[in-house]
Amino acid sequence: MSSSLLGLLLLEANIWLILVFLFKLLQNVQPLKKEAKDGCDKALEEKRKTEEKVAQAREAKDQLQKDLVNLRVKVVADVVRARGEAIVNFKNLRIYTSTDLLTIVLKFRPSSLCQF
């Protein structure tokens, strides 16, 4: 055998060894690639769930803020109405003299309310 033929055979053997090594390496990488893909899918699913929870929390916060504004408006309206009633009642009391008030009190005493 000539040395060039021997060199070619050694080169071919080395190429086959490299191919076998790469094939084995590729077999080891495939499960890792699948694990990485599964991990990525799981992380994306967790991100989606978290985003849904954040959206729900934002909606709840917005609704609570609307409810708070509505309650504040209602309280202000109730206070204004109560103040108005108090002013009207006070003005109504001022138009009566003390004699008129005594007459009103005596007229509506409990004993007269019980008489039919």
Automatic annotation (TrEMBL):
<keyword id="KW-0472">Membrane</keyword>
<keyword id="KW-1133">Transmembrane helix</keyword>
<feature type="transmembrane region" description="Helical">
    <location>
        <begin position="6"/>
        <end position="26"/>
    </location>
</feature>
<protein>
    <submittedName>
        <fullName>Uncharacterized protein</fullName>
    </submittedName>
</protein>
<keyword id="KW-0812">Transmembrane</keyword>
<keyword id="KW-0175">Coiled coil</keyword>
<feature type="coiled-coil region">
    <location>
        <begin position="33"/>
        <end position="74"/>
    </location>
</feature>
